[in-house]
Amino acid sequence: MKIDVCCKWCEKSYELNVSKKRFALWKKGELIQDVMPELSADERELLISGTCGKCWDVMFGISKNNNLK
């Protein structure tokens, strides 16, 4: 099934193609990475939190000034 998901931060709309069965399993509590491994990490995060990959990177990405190794 195709679902439209809008990022709650930038309001950009994304269309995802997911299995109805797998979507239902996730909504019932299965881990999204287990039932929808075909989706990218960014697509899964969009479903979980309503945050697209670009906005996630802006909010939580490692900056060039961060010395984490």
Structure description:
The protein is of the alpha+beta class and 69 residues long. Helix content is 42%, strand content 14%. The chain contains four helices and two strands, in the order ββαααα. The protein has helices spanning 20-27, 32-35, 41-49, 53-60; strands spanning 2-6, 13-17. It has a two-stranded antiparallel sheet. Strand 1 (2-6) and strand 2 (13-17) form a beta hairpin. It is globular and about 35 Å long. The termini are far apart. The mean pLDDT is 91.
Cα Rg: 14 Å
Globally, the shape reads globular
Distance from N terminus to C terminus (CA atoms, Å) equals: 41 Å
What is the N-to-C order of secondary-structure elements (H for helix, E for strand)?
Answer: EEHHHH
Q: How helix-rich are the residues, as a percent range? A: 40-55%
Strand order in space, largest sheet: 1-2
Which assembly state applies to the chains in this document? single chain
The count of β-strands is 2
Largest sheet: 2 strands, antiparallel
Mean pLDDT: 91
| Proportion of beta-strand residues | 5-15%
- Count helical runs: 4
Which structural category do the helix and sheet elements fall into? alpha+beta
Residue ranges: pLDDT <50 for 5 or more in a row?
none
Summed up, what is this model?
By secondary structure, the chain is an alpha+beta fold.
Task: Show the helix and strand layout.
Elements (H helix, E strand, L loop, with lengths): L1 E5 L6 E5 L2 H8 L4 H4 L5 H9 L3 H8 L9
Antiparallel strand pairs: 1-2
Could you list some keywords that capture this structure?
single chain, 69 residues, alpha+beta, two-stranded antiparallel ribbon, globular
